[in-house]
Amino acid sequence: MQDSSLLVALADSLLAGEPTAELLFYRCSRTLGKRWRWLGPLTERYVKRFRRTRPRRRDVIRFLRDDAGFERAQSKYSNELSLKEWLTVPQQMLPTPAAEQWELPAIETPGDLAKWLGLDPGELRWFADLKGLGYKRNESRLQHYHYRILTKRFGSIRVIEAPKPRLKDLQRQILMWILEKVPPHAAAHGFVKGRSIRSFVAPHVGRRVVLRMDLRDFFPTFGGVRIQSLFRTLGYPEPVADLLGGICTNATPQQVWAEIAADLGPVCTGEVRRLYSRPHLPQGAPPSPALANMCCYRLDCRLSSLAKSSGASYTRYADDLAFSADQEFEKGAERFGLQVAAILLEEGFKVHHRKTRVMRQGVRQHLGGLVTNQRVNVVRSDFDRLKAMLTNCVRFGPDSQNREARPCFRSHLAGRVAFVEMINPSRGSRLRAIFEKIRWPASA
Questions:
Q1: Which helix (DSSP H) or strand (DSSP E) does residue 359 occupy?
Q2: 14 has a pLDDT exceeding 90
Q3: Which run of H or of E encompasses 81?
Q4: What is the C-alpha separation between 430 and 12, in angstroms, rounded?
């Protein structure tokens, strides 16, 4: 019992202090009542082991139990080691050195979090759903998300998980006041203010060779444990980080899969079900893109360094990766792609090998639906189809072209025209002129 108490007390001392070996040594010495020589190397090993994140209490206890130096000290000084002072300090923000500059709101207890979100403690637990009750519920009115299944190419699917209004408001608050305070990596261009699909492809225009790679199941790859760890890294105590992670993640209920089992077959359905049954970032929730970019920060650092060492440029738009360079890179582009795939696997991602392309100047180089051979441009076939649709709207009315029964067809077409205007203003102005001639019904 004494050994267990000693482990827990040392773990609390390590968690309560600043993440530097010197300060942790001081706190542990107070706990044991003596400045043991072996404490210095122990705290250094602790800092090295958990330097990238704020660990859970159980992980620190496991670290102490598995540490060979601590085991030797216990064996050698078993009669002298004792608990002199259990340092109980209130939970506090302990951000990493970089996070100290981001002016994040200080939320140190679950009660503080409930007050910050405008909830009572019971509502906070309901929305965070750390026990996974939402996965087991069969009544949609008791669930926090609406679900839509989209079938993709090659027989795979995408699950759109749209949070209901009240949960969406909570997620937007977390996005606005916490996640948007964290600066993204320079290579990340998707869902980042001031960056776009155009800035994603701009570094690769006119290059000798362009390598394009795609990640499989991007959002569900980020599990709930990883998101909670991210909030701890920002400095939030474990109970608060768990609740924040619970609000931002979701486990897709079992009943959703009954709708697609007949179309995809039991094997494919089983794989998808296992992926989505654990807490993950839901595609369709406001904070998911920002959290995904934050989780990809180390990946972006590694791939940027690899590209720089090979004289290449690297950018990422969500799950689309792009590399480009000139003549020297062209000879080893395929081998470089294998190195990238190895890093992706080490970081926990799956590569969609069917979408990997090495595009040289002799073929159309395209990224994110844009052509990049000489300048950034829309694909000619896409432009022609949109122009034909607008022309038919003028001749036969917009209802004749709304084959997918979009409720806001006018806004849909306006958005597509605005996109072309952003990429190619001259082509966009031609489409805009046709769009202005369309006679819309009064209800539009």
A1: strand 357-360
A2: no
A3: none
A4: 67
CA distance 165 to 355: 36
Q: Which helix (H) or strand (E) holds 360?
A: strand 357-360
The encoded tokens of residue 232 equal 């701890």
Half-sphere exposure of 328 (CA within 13 A, CB side): 6
Distance CA 23, CA 216 (A): 43
Nearest Cα residue to 305 out of 186, 442, 132? 186
Give residue 262's pLDDT: 54
Strands 320-325, 357-360: pairing kind:
unpaired
Q: What is the DSSP letter of 17?
A: S
């598995």: which residue's tokens?
Answer: 66
Amino acid identity, residue 236?
Y
* Of 317, 362, 359, the residue nearest 334 (C-alpha): 359
Region class of 308: left (phi > 0), else alpha (psi between -120 and 50), else beta: alpha
Q: What's the whole-number average pLDDT of the chain?
A: 88
- What single-letter amino acid sits at 363? V
pTM of the model: 0.85
Torsion of CA 110, 115, 117, 120, to 10 degrees: 80
